[in-house]
């Protein structure tokens, strides 16, 4: 005998797995928000400054205080943002209706005006005309930015005076295995609260953040992630947030079965620090580097990364590390080559960033470099030899650096 279950609204659940997905969606969807961003444009005829839509994305409720987590690139160039939230109350709050109490505020503003909508984008209404989660009302609130971390593509927004928020359950990205089930909830192409499913298809990936720095330990999934999903949660099969959707790999810009999510452990660390301090305090070494395999081969450097410049006044400068320099006679001397930090080999830019970020400002770390020195070769001509040297470098907070402050 085959058992079936009747889903809410009269649909039939074919099996327990399907029931589980429905239950997860209905539990987590109210934690997922829709974010609209706006820029300013001056009207050519009236010279008035107009607010125009500039983009959209997803996010999720972090806590009962109104903190909203999303990607930095979602709000990067916006002048203002509005967050659509599902809160308990009302009947068919996501059905068709009208707008009330429209308002706008700059992202750096300190006030928040609530705008209540009962209108809906396509996708929130089922094929039979029923609404998604009819026991919730969809309200829109003007948000302010609490803090951003471009290097991890994370931003924290805040909405005030919202009753009935449902924070997402935060899991852990530690111990994830390829093949585990994954679910993504977001707003692709403006379609509210879309659920897609798949598996974790890769772990330990690396993608570039908006700042150009690599984000490590990124989760790869084949759950469809499309434009508009950015900032939405990636869930495990229990409905816990294990990552935040950040990018897709696709020549067309639409889902090609390769999506990426920032791991939950990284999200938690960054979000908690942004809420507490409003900024991320990271340790600073104080060098610019050349991360090019071709350049290393051309210069005869077997391993490590070449220091191009040592920033004045930074820990690297105080410890005595050297960058690329030109002598009085016009000869270019190769800088130090970082080959290890705390005896852990450094092969590329990602290795360096991951290593430095594992420490705290004030920590003293051992940086091993290969220093090029010119010696007489066996034929009497000059020959470059690499001399291994260890330096004790005391890291400082990046925001304490005069260089970073300009």
From TrEMBL:
GO terms for molecular function: serine-type peptidase activity. Pfam families: PDZ_2 (PF13180), Trypsin_2 (PF13365). Keywords: Hydrolase, Protease, Serine protease, Virulence. SUPFAM superfamilies: PDZ domain-like (SSF50156), Trypsin-like serine proteases (SSF50494). PANTHER family: PEPTIDASE S12 (PTHR43343), PROTEASE DO-LIKE 8, CHLOROPLASTIC (PTHR43343:SF3). Belongs to the peptidase S1C family. This is PDZ domain-containing protein. It comes from Cyclostephanos tholiformis.
């Amino acid at each position: 005998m085959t058992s079936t279950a009747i889903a809410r609204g009269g649909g039939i659940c074919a099996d327990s797995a399907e029931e589980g997905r429905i239950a997860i969606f209905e539990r987590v969807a109210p934690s997922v928000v829709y974010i609209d961003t706006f820029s300013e444009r001056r009207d050519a005829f009236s010279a008035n400054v107009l607010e125009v839509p500039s983009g959209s994305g997803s996010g999720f409720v972090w806590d009962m205080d109104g903190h909203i987590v999303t990607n930095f690139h979602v709000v990067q160039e916006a002048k203002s943002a509005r967050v659509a939230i599902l809160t308990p109350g009302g009947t068919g709050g996501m059905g068709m209706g009208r707008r009330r109490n429209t308002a706008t505020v700059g992202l750096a503003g300190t006030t928040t005006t609530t705008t209540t909508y009962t209108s809906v984008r396509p996708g929130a209404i089922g094929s039979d005309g029923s609404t998604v989660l009819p026991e919730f009302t969809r309200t829109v609130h003007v948000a302010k930015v609490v803090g951003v971390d471009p290097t991890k593509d994370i931003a924290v927004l805040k909405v005030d005076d919202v009753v009935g928020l449902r924070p997402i359950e935060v899991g852990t990205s530690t111990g994830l295995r390829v093949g585990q089930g994954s679910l993504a909830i977001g707003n692709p192409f403006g379609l509210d609260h879309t659920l897609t499913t798949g598996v974790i298809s890769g772990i330990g990936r690396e993608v570039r953040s908006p700042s150009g720095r690599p984000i490590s330990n990124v989760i790869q999934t084949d759950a469809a992630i499309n434009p508009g999903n950015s900032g939405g949660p990636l869930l495990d099969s229990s409905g816990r947030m294990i990552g935040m959707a950040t990018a897709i790999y696709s020549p067309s810009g639409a889902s090609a079965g390769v999506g990426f999510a920032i791991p939950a452990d990284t999200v938690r660390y960054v979000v908690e620090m942004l809420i507490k301090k409003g900024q991320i305090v990271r340790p600073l070494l104080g060098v610019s580097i050349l991360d090019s395999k071709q350049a290393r081969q051309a210069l005869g450097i077997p391993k490590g990364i070449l220091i191009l410049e040592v920033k004045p006044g930074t820990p690297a400068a105080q410890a005595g590390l050297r960058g690329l320099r030109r002598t009085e006679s016009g000869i270019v001397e190769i800088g130090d080559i970082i080959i290890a930090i705390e005896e852990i080999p450094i092969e590329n830019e990602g290795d360096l960033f991951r290593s430095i970020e594992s420490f705290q400002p004030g920590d003293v770390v051992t940086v091993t470099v290969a220093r090029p020195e010119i010696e007489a070769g066996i034929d009497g001509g000059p020959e470059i030899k690499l001399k291994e040297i260890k330096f004790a470098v005391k890291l400082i907070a990046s925001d304490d650096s005069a260089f970073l402050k300009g």
